[in-house]
């Protein structure tokens, strides 16, 4: 198990970072928010979880232990795998996910692509008591991290589709963001704004 990695960020994508450790480049899947905190050429430290499959070894990385802990916790629920867990943390901050589970806010949970009402109910049923025992304030508001279109728009749409939204949902969100007054132009800013739009 690789619990953390520290090294130079050789490449930073919208949803992944390549970290060079001891001359080896490790591809680490992240949330868009985590990726935007990394800079190419800088040393980064990521808390990681390795998911082992018969055909692959996949690393998921987080800047904070709270994100990693929640990523692992939600996967104890039947039907929730690493991709869906990462989508949850891409749409909502960790405290917001815990708050939504603690107060059975199904509307907030179903804003995550891939989570329907039954999946949301299962998350609440299986995790609510554990979340409350941890002392999470169920009154915490659910806020989505921020997410727009041309070369930038295409990259953002691809990232959103990779997180589970349909091509139409991704395209509509990017169009709404890029068409707004004072629209952002950088990929990371557009992605954050589109994620906000999709979280409404």
Provide a brief overview of the structure.
With 200 residues, the protein is of the alpha+beta class. It is built from 9 helices and 5 strands.
* Count of discrete domains: 3
Number of helices: 9
Helix content: 40-55%
Strand content: 15-25%
Distance between the termini: 37 Å
State the order of secondary-structure elements, H for helix, E for strand: EEEHEEHHHHHHHH
Query: What CATH architecture of the largest domain would you give?
Result: Orthogonal Bundle
Domain Helix-hairpin-helix DNA-binding motif class: 72-91, 107-126
GO biological process, one term: DNA repair
Protein name: Holliday junction branch migration complex subunit RuvA
Subcellular location: Cytoplasm
Describe the structure.
- With 200 residues, the chain is α+β, with helices and mostly antiparallel strands.
- The chain has three domains: 4-62, Nucleic acid-binding proteins (OB fold (Dihydrolipoamide Acetyltransferase, E2P)); 68-133, DNA polymerase, domain 1; 151-198, Helicase, Ruva Protein, domain 3 (Orthogonal Bundle).
- The protein is built from nine helices and five strands, in the order E-E-E-H-E-E-H-H-H-H-H-H-H-H.
- The protein has a five-stranded mixed beta barrel.
- Strand 1 (4-12) and strand 2 form a beta hairpin.
- Helix 4 (94-102) packs across helix 6 (117-133) and helix 8 packs across helix 9 (187-198).
- The longest helix is centred in the middle third of the chain and has 17 residues, at 117-133.
- The radius of gyration is 17 Å and the shape is globular.
- The N and C termini lie far apart (37 Å).
- Mean pLDDT is 84; it is low at 137-149.
- It comes from Ornithinimicrobium cerasi.
- It is found in: Cytoplasm.
- One of its GO terms (biological process) is DNA recombination.
- GO terms for molecular function: ATP binding; four-way junction DNA binding; four-way junction helicase activity.
- Residues 152-200 are annotated as: Domain III.
């Amino acid at each position: 198990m690789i619990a953390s990695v520290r090294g130079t960020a050789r490449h930073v994508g919208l949803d992944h970072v390549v970290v060079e450790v001891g001359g080896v480049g490790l591809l680490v899947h992240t949330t868009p928010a985590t990726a935007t905190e990394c800079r190419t050429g800088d040393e980064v430290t990521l808390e990681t979880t390795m998911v082992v499959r018969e055909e692959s070894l996949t690393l998921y990385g987080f800047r904070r232990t709270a994100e990693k802990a929640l990523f692992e916790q939600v996967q104890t629920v039947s039907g929730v795998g690493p991709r869906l867990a990462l989508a949850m943390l891409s749409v909502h901050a960790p405290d917001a996910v815990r708050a939504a589970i603690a107060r059975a806010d199904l509307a907030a949970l179903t804003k995550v692509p891939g989570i329907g009402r039954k999946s949301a109910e299962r998350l609440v049923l299986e995790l609510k008591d554990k979340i409350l025992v941890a002392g999470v304030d169920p009154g915490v508001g659910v806020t989505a991290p921020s997410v727009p279109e041309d070369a930038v728009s295409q990259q953002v749409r691809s990232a959103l589709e990779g997180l589970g939204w349909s091509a139409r949902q991704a395209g509509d969100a990017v169009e709404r963001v890029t068409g707004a007054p004072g629209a952002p132009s950088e990929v990371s800013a557009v992605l954050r704004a589109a994620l906000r739009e999709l979280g409404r």
